[in-house]
Amino acid sequence: MEEDAIADPLEPLNRIFFHFNDKLYYWLLKPVAKGYSAIVPEGIQISIRNFFNNLNTPTRVVNCLLQGQVKDSSVEVTRFVLNSTVGVLGFGDFAKDVFGLHSTREDTGQTLGVYGMGGIFYINWPFLGPSNLRDSFGMVGDAYLHPFMYLDADWEVLVGARAFEKVNQTALTLGDYELFTETALDPYAAVKDAYQQYRKGLIKE
Question: What is the pTM of this model?
């Protein structure tokens, strides 16, 4: 079981990257997301989020199986089939809306945590944000499980798709980051602690 606190031997570098990501959010990501939100209705934004969530089904299926969650894995497969067909390529969440089948949130970092690997130490990656050593390994595993890895497309297209997904998600959560960081005495520490507690909670589920 992980401790509530996590080692942060890279704190000076992490704080630099946190400051970089913070400025990136306020100077680029937030303005783009606000403009995007003004043009694209929220209903369409939700449909786009559903599409990307549906694409990520293989990651959840494999990690459910690795964690021994056979029932959850079968639910994910059923959701994928229903949403990819009746849900029109995943833009609609037919499985949840009609049958009450909810998606899991399993990923490779959680699987490593279930098997006893702690976060080890905290890392704040530029562009990617808060993580730890375990979840950083997990992100590599997740990348290899994602369908994007096997598309015959230029890297610019794949990066663009990921950037579009990030803008869409940010548009749906505008104000959350500001509310959290602007009320904290030390935003860096607040984000680090919140990330640690969030990941710990997912592993316990």
Answer: 0.91
